[in-house]
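Render this sequence as a predicted structure.
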Amino acid sequence: MCLAAASASASSPARCCLSPSSAALPSRFLRGLLGSPTRPSPSPPPPTTTPLLRRCTPFHRMAQYWTQASLDKNKALVDHLKQYGAVRTDEVAEVMETIDRALFVPEGSPYIDSPMPIGFNATISAPHMHATCLELLKDHLQPGMHALDVGSGSGYLTACFAMMVGPEGRAVGVEHIPEIVASAIENVQKSAAAPLMKDGSLSFRVADGRLGFPDAAPYDAIHVGAAAPEIPQPLLDQLKPGGRMVIPVGTYYQDLQVVDKNADGSISIRNDASVRYVPLTSRSAQCQDP
């Protein structure tokens, strides 16, 4: 998604400890797709919310299978994400099977592993990116926890968060374009997450994502769906000690960063994968013709 331009203060009170990427399977899976980006670059490719596919013969074979009509169903998509390592746990498989992606994709083929346009120069991320973020955040999306989805777009990932934290928890989607928020609400009303929106545990807000959403803070899990040049300080402030944020950081070259707030308030950051997301930008810039 595209959201308001995010900037963080260079002097944060939190201590940052940069650590190497873990050897967890999602990291290996995505790095296998990406390889190492080459810094001297030709003209930039158009941004998407999917990693840059550089060396991935198996993944391209999988994408070809996904175009077959026999796999044009939500469970088949999840099964293939499981087969290729993007979905690794029962919790993530269950929620992705429960929330049908087709309800959140206004045009195109919803079960192909590709980002899709949702209007206003915004996109819904590719399914394997949703799976990756859910796997990274699943321990912080337990029943009763609070989750924030910045740049909530069509509402798909926010709905997944709500199903995982349950009616005793809270999931908030923040988006700065009212028409997209209205569309997300309509999408969720057709989905399995509709009762959670009715009882108030799932909600969407028209707001500036740079500022998060303090009313429901602190958050156990924060997801940011567009690339910020730096991690926004208000989001760090709203992250609960013991909580985790997943955010793409960078301009042309971007890293999907996993940000953990330790019990003492210090911050640990590791890079999970090289990615290419649409930029976190202002509402006026997003609505301009590309």
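Summary. The chain has ten helices and ten strands. The CA atoms of residues 29 and 85 lie 6 Å apart.
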